[in-house]
Structure formats: C-alpha cells, structure tokens
Design goal:
Number of strands: 2
Number of helices: 5
Distance between the termini: 39 Å
Shape: globular
Helix content: 55-70%
Structural class: mainly alpha
Length: 141
C-alpha cells in the first residue's frame, strides 16, 4: 500500500512542518521569510555569488521527487490507479492550503502545488495512453 502513496507528499509535509513551526501557525508570514532567507552562498566560477535558500533546496528536492513520480506513473499496475487518486487528493489539499492560509501563499508552495498538479495530469494521461495501447481489437474490427 505504501507503494501507492504519492511521493510528492514528502515536500508538502516538509513545507507544512516549516510553515507551521515558524510561529503564528496558519497565519504566519514568517514562512515566507524563512523560505527566502539565505542558508549558504555558492561562489560561482564567473565570480558571481549564488545565494541558496531553504525554498530553493525544497524546490530542487521536489523536482527530483516529481521525476520519480513521473517514472512511477508509467507502470500499469493496480496500485497506479490508487496513486493517481491519492495524488488528486493531495492536489486538492495543496490548493485549499494555498488559497486559504497566508502561510502557504508563497511562490515556493505555489510551485510545489503546480508540481502536484503536473503529477496528477501526467499520471492520468500516461494511464489513458497506456490503456489505449493495451486495447486490442480482432482482425475484422
């Protein structure tokens, strides 16, 4: 059953933990400050400095998880349908949080929500295309 769980729930849970532990709960605007605060600096070969924030790291990890989710959506197992359904529920939760809670009205959470939406769409599209290929008609049909 754990194989059917969408992996994008991990970045959403991490964001929820960060946003809700900064103080102020769902009304916290401190989440925006915490997500954009510089964690470390990368000195580039061209002499420029690249400030990396917690939001940047969370988005990079979310993209990697999205890639794995897209690979998982290509399987035609029974658990794939459960995964697509749970991904849809996760998208609805993300959308409600984004629209109704100030702590989640950030660019970082919007992009994570967009990744969850892309996972939902890609999962259903890949399943539909794969089921069309699996559909076999007889020689006279």
């Amino acid at each position: 059953m754990l194989a059917a769980a969408p992996l994008l729930v991990l970045p959403v849970l991490i964001y929820n933990l960060i946003a809700l532990t900064t103080g102020g709960g769902f009304a916290a605007e401190a989440a925006q400050v915490r997500m954009t605060a510089e964690m470390f600096m990368v000195h580039m070969p061209n002499g420029a400095n690249w400030p990396v924030s917690l939001g940047d790291l969370l988005l990079a990890a979310s993209l990697i998880v999205l890639f794995v989710e897209l690979l998982k959506s290509t399987t035609s197992r029974r658990s794939a349908i459960i995964n697509h359904s749970l991904s849809m529920v996760l998208f609805i939760v993300c959308l409600v949080e984004f629209l109704l809670s100030p702590a989640f009205a950030t660019s970082v959470f919007f992009l994570i929500t967009l990744m969850v939406l892309l996972d939902v769409l890609a999962g259903f599209i890949v399943t539909i295309v794969a089921s069309r290929r699996d559909l076999d008609f007889g020689p006279g049909d």
